[in-house]
Write a structure and sequence with these properties.
With about 260 residues, the protein is mainly alpha-helical. The chain has helices spanning about 40-55, 65-75, 80-95, 100-110, 115-130, 135-145, 150-160, 165-180, 185-195, 205-220, 220-245, and strands at about 1-5, 10-15, 25-30. Among the domains are: about 1-35, no CATH class; about 165-240, no CATH class. Strands 1-2-3 form a three-stranded antiparallel sheet, with no helix packed on it.
C-alpha cells in the first residue's frame, strides 16, 4: 500500500505476497521523494547571462566570488552538481580559500553527490573558518546520523550545542538517541525541542520540516495535523504566486545553508 499526500510525503506499507499474516510489514515515510526543477529555461538563461558578464569582466573583482556562488546555485537547481562544485571552488579561490558559507555549501553538494569523505572535510573546514557558526556542525551531525555513525553524530551535535541550541538541533539529537534505543534521552531532547520552537505559523519552511519530523517521532498527532495544515496553506500561497507569474520559493532540504 502507498499514499502520497499533498505535502509531498510518501507513506509506504509493504509485505511479501507469501509472508506470514503475523509478520510485521515494512513501513516507511519519505518526504519530498520527487524533485522538480522549477522553470529550467529561466535558470539556463540566468546562467548564460552571468557567464557572459563574467567573460566580459562586467563585475568588479569583489563581486566575482558572489556571482560564481550564484552560478553554482543555479547549476544545482538544474541537477548539475559537478559544475556547481567547480564554480564554488573558483569562488573560494577569490576569497583566499576561506569562506565558511562556501565551504558549507561544498559540504552539502558533495554529500548529495555521495562523496561523504569530502562532505565531512568541507563541513569541518567551514566550522574552523567560522568558530561561532553552529551550522556546519549541525550538517556534519546530520550526515553522520544518515550513515549510522551515531557516536560521532553526538559529538558533532555537542559542538553545535556549545554555540547554539535550537529546535531542529534538538530534534536531530532526539533522532540519534532513538536510533541508539535511548528512549529517555530521546524524550528529553524532544520535550526541549518543542519548547524551543516558536508557534507553527511563525516557523520558516526549514524549521517546519524539522518540527514535523519531531512530531512524528513523538507521536504527536494533533501537532502533525497542525503542521500539515500550515504546509497546505503555504503551498496554496505559492501556487497563487505562480499564477501571478512569479517563481515560487524552493523548499529547503534538511541541511542548513545559512542562519
Amino acid at each position: 500500500e502507498y499514499r502520497y499526500d499533498e505535502n509531498q510525503v510518501l507513506d509506504l506499507r509493504m509485505r511479501l505476497a507469501d509472508a506470514d499474516e503475523l509478520e510485521e510489514p515494512f513501513v516507511a515515510t519519505i518526504e519530498n521523494p520527487l524533485t522538480n526543477v522549477v522553470n529550467p529555461q529561466s535558470r539556463r538563461l540566468k546562467i548564460d547571462e552571468i557567464e557572459e558578464d563574467l567573460r566580459n569582466k562586467k563585475y568588479p573583482a569583489y563581486r566575482v566570488p558572489d556571482k560564481l556562488v550564484e552560478l553554482a546555485e543555479n547549476y544545482v537547481e538544474l541537477g548539475q552538481r559537478e559544475k556547481a562544485v567547480d564554480y564554488l571552488k573558483k569562488a573560494l579561490q577569490g576569497k583566499n580559500g576561506v569562506d565558511a558559507s562556501i565551504l558549507n555549501k561544498l559540504g552539502i553538494y558533495f554529500g548529495e553527490m555521495g562523496d561523504y569523505e569530502r562532505e565531512e572535510k568541507f563541513y569541518r573546514e567551514a566550522a574552523a573558518a567560522s568558530p561561532s557558526w553552529s551550522t556546519p556542525w549541525f550538517n556534519l551531525a546530520l550526515a553522520q546520523k544518515k550513515r549510522k555513525r551515531y557516536s560521532e553524530a553526538i559529538e558533532s551535535l555537542e559542538k553545535a550545542f556549545s554555540i547554539r541550541r535550537e529546535g531542529p538541533y534538538l530534534i536531530l539529537a532526539g533522532q540519534v538517541a532513538d536510533a541508539c534505543h535511548k528512549t529517555s534521552d530521546r524524550d528529553k531532547y524532544l520535550k526541549e525541542a518543542f519548547e524551543a520552537f516558536s508557534s507553527v505559523s511563525a516557523l520558516d519552511d526549514w524549521e517546519l520540516g524539522w518540527i514535523l519530523a519531531g512530531a512524528r517521532l513523538a507521536g504527536k498527532n494533533d501537532l502533525i495535523e497542525q503542521i500539515q495544515l500550515e504546509q497546505r496553506r503555504r503551498k496554496e500561497r505559492r501556487e497563487l504566486v505562480i499564477e501571478r507569474g512569479v517563481l515560487p520559493i524552493i523548499t529547503p532540504g534538511m541541511q542548513k545553508v545559512s542562519e
